[in-house]
Structure of Jumonji domain containing 8:
Amino acid sequence: GSAGCASARPTPTPTAKVRGWGGSAFRALCTRDKLLAAYGQRRVRLSTANTYSYRKVDVPFQEYVEQLLKPQDPTALGSDTLYFFGDNNFTEWGPLFQQYVPPPFRIPGTSGAYSFGIGGSGSGVPFHWHGPGYSEVIFGRKRWFLYPPDKTPHFHPNETTLAWLQRTYPTLPPAERPLECTLRPGEILYFPDRWWHATLNLDTSVFISTFLG
């Protein structure tokens, strides 16, 4: 089946599929209790939720989950919003990543690098682009907005995705609206090289991305 991200544009285009690739064993390790038991005292690196992710802050994982993992303030700037996505210590998080079953999709000549994250309701990353990869939701729901490389979206780099959705999105003519879809647990989205994309967690969400490089 499809998670609803479709396009009439020439390939490559974002593709969303329903399939629990990550596996039930990996999902079981990603519950709040299991993650806190395994990583609560480990320090994690948070990034500001703006386009260029300038600032990094290291905090104990338990502090992030218990104090910072809360619904997004619509008035907060991206530079004032801290978010745990990527920047994983691969030695510390290796035992978890070893349990992940990635989708059997490959681009010849590339290898995958995992990026694991947890975000509160209303959090996310504003429009940015990078190389190709795919992202799977383990818990929660994540809404994606995508534009092809030649169609730069209208956004302010220090505006959160939630603020963009509330202020800019409703004013866009139909021809200027992004491709969009919502991923639920076990659903995965492939994002092609250099496609603009922004994300919005509709619930507290746990997710893992695989960057192909």
Notes: Confidence is low (pLDDT under 50) at residues 6-10. The chain has one domain: 15-212. Residues 32-39 form the longest helix (8 residues).
